[in-house]
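At this stage, I needed to go through a protein sequence along with its fold in token form, as given directly below:
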Amino acid sequence: MSMDMTSVGDTGLLDTLQHEVALFARRAEQTRLGGVGQVRNSMDRAAYLLLNRLDNEGPMGVKALAASMGIDSSTVTRQVAPLVDTGLVKRTSHPEDGRAVVLQLSPRGQARLEEVRSSRRQLMAELTHDWTPEERESFCTLLTRFNSALSARMSMQGVPAAETQQGS
């Protein structure tokens, strides 16, 4: 879908926007927005997104987890393996089909996820300490809208967009 830039708005503003998004992506990856204190940078993005998804949606099989995240099953299998090895995720038999495997957060995984979330909340509070509640809400609304638009565009192009889905 091509848009005439004159119908979108000022190209100078769009240039600034794309530059700021590029800077944000680089800084977010450099810091991994990992939080503060000892928890900072202690969980990679893939692990955080998988644990968060299992926490939000409950136990599920590899295929269901992959589908809910917009990635393929082999990627989920590869990313889950170290989480199982470290005891953050448990593999159990499906209650209705003992041959199928269900992934779920372990108590250790739940505690670790909450520790990382708490650290990340603290980082967000520090970065926006001089913002009004309305500014925080506005930024969150616009960032969610931006991510949704990016996710929709990627879906139209057949590209998995796990990081841009809400709840990830």
